[in-house]
Each structure stands twice: as structure tokens, then as C-alpha cells.
């Protein structure tokens, strides 16, 4: 029994409820301890570890936290592909999908619904492309606005499909923002953009960074952060 348990604690995958997911290890030069989290879509368990830590120790750490991970898995909304009659959220507002075979293939908002035509088996792909185009327009406008408020030259924006980050600013020349934020309320999306614009000046999370962020963002940062923490995973349930 003990030998079996030891073997299980070294398995690079873990059973959480009805799902078995891999354990992904990521070494980080600045990490001082093991940190554990579940991917937003529940696809894997992620462990960030110091360079000196042993892989076996990290894997055993995940297995020891199985109950906590299983509870996190239960909080993830069930994945449902968008279908006619279902609603998708655009800027925080749920709109019903109105599919008709003879309607225009390019989606559009008509009478408070998302009108879309073409083959029914391609609805998800067609809606995702449309939402991404809408997202790029809004995110570009947001970026230009906050750069102007911060008295900076505007920078280009590209869309991210990341599973764990809402935005990034790696070289101070371009922002990458998660396109799924088009589904969130405007204040939430704009808070992420403002956050990344502030990183164009302060590439850290220092008091100066938060001071600038508070100056350029007009909304309630705490409220926006709370929304993402409580509802962020729901943005992954309809589009892969």
C-alpha cells in the first residue's frame, strides 16, 4: 500500500474528479518556493518552481493538494460550444445567437441578437473570428486613449490567446491583450489595457507603477480585479 502510494505521488498527472490532467512544471529563476495553480480551462495543473527544486518534490506537492485542486476544478464552468439560441457575451452583455442558413455569414448585431448564417457546423469558428476583430478595434482604441492620458506615444496591439495571462508588455513597444476580454464588461477590459500601458513606464509592480495606473484609469480597479478573479474562467467556456 505504501509503495503504491509513493508511486502515485510521483505520477506526472493527477485525477481531479472525473478528469485526469497533466502536471506541468515551470522553473523560474526568481521563484523562491513552489506555487501551484490550475489552468483557467482546467487543462493542466501548473507548478512554478525554483531552479534548485526537485521535479519529484514538485509533483508530490501537487498530489498532496489534490483536494484543493479538485475543488478548483469544480468551479470551472462547463465548456459549451456556441449554438443557435444560446447566448454569447459581448462587452458584458449576453446576446442570443440568431442563426439562419440564408443569413449573411459575417456575424452582426441585429435587434439585440447576433445574426449569423452559413454552415451550422462552422458557427463557433465564424463567431470567434468576428469577436477577435471586434476585440482588436476596441483594444487599439483603449491603448491609444491610455497612452494619450499617460503622455506617451501610442503603441500597437496584438491579440493574445494565452490561457493564464490577460495582458503582457514584454519590450515596451507592443501590448498583447487576451482577445477573450471582448466578452467582459468594458471597465474590466479597459483596466487590463491601462495596466499594460502603465508598464510602458514602470516595468514592475512598484508603488510608482500603481500610482500611474491609478492616475490614468478612470474606473474602479478593485472592482475590475474582483470581476476577473471571480468570472475570468467563464470567458474560456465557449471558444477554444
How are the elements arranged and paired?
Elements lengths: L1 H8 L3 E4 L2 E9 L7 E4 L6 E5 L5 H10 L1 H10 L11 E4 L2 E7 L8 E3 L2 E4 L6 H27 L7 E4 L6 E2 L6 E4 L7 H14 L7 H10 L4 H11 L9
Parallel strand pairs: 2-4, 6-8, 9-11
Antiparallel strand pairs: 1-2, 3-4, 5-6, 7-8, 10-11
Helix pairs in contact: 4-5, 5-6, 5-7
Walkthrough of the structure:
It is flat, with a radius of gyration of 21 Å. The N terminus is likely disordered. It is α/β, with parallel strands linked by helices and 240 residues long.
* Helical content (DSSP H or I, runs of 4+): 25-40%
Reported for the largest beta sheet, the result is:
4 strands, mixed
- Number of continuous helical runs: 7
Give the termini distance in whole angstroms: 40 Å
SS class: alpha/beta
Poorly predicted runs are 1-5
> In sequence order, what are the helices and strands, one letter per element?
HEEEEHHEEEEHEEEHHH
Strands, total number: 11
Summed over residues and divided by their number, the pLDDT gives a mean of 89
Q: Largest sheet, order of strands side by side?
A: 1-2-4-3
Shape: flat
Radius of gyration: 21 Å
Strand percentage: 15-25%
Concise overview:
This protein has 240 residues and is of the alpha/beta class. It is built from seven helices and eleven strands.
Question: What brief labels describe this structure?
Answer:
240 residues, alpha/beta, four-stranded mixed beta sheet, 38% helix, flat, disordered N terminus
Amino acid at each position: 500500500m505504501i509503495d503504491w502510494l509513493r508511486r502515485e505521488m510521483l505520477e506526472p498527472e493527477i485525477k481531479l474528479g472525473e478528469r485526469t490532467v497533466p502536471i506541468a512544471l515551470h522553473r523560474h529563476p526568481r521563484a523562491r518556493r513552489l506555487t501551484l495553480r490550475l489552468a483557467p480551462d482546467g487543462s493542466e495543473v501548473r507548478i512554478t518552481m525554483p531552479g534548485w527544486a526537485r521535479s519529484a518534490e514538485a509533483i508530490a506537492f501537487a498530489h498532496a493538494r489534490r483536494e484543493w485542486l479538485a475543488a478548483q476544478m469544480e468551479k470551472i464552468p462547463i465548456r459549451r460550444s456556441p449554438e443557435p439560441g444560446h447566448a454569447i457575451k459581448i462587452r458584458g452583455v449576453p446576446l442570443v445567437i440568431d442563426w439562419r442558413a440564408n443569413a449573411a455569414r459575417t456575424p452582426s448585431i441585429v435587434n439585440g441578437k447576433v445574426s449569423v448564417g452559413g454552415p451550422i457546423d462552422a458557427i463557433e469558428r465564424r463567431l470567434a473570428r468576428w469577436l477577435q476583430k471586434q476585440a482588436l478595434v476596441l483594444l487599439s482604441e483603449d491603448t491609444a486613449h491610455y497612452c494619450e492620458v499617460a503622455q506617451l506615444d501610442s503603441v500597437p496591439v496584438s491579440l493574445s490567446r494565452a490561457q493564464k495571462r490577460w495582458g503582457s508588455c514584454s519590450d515596451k513597444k507592443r501590448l498583447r491583450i487576451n482577445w477573450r476580454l471582448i466578452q467582459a464588461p468594458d471597465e474590466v477590459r479597459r483596466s487590463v489595457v491601462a495596466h499594460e500601458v502603465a508598464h510602458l513606464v514602470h516595468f514592475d509592480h512598484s508603488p510608482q507603477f500603481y500610482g500611474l495606473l491609478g492616475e490614468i484609469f478612470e474606473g474602479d480597479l478593485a472592482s475590475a480585479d474582483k470581476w476577473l478573479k471571480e468570472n475570468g474562467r467563464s470567458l474560456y467556456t465557449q471558444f477554444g
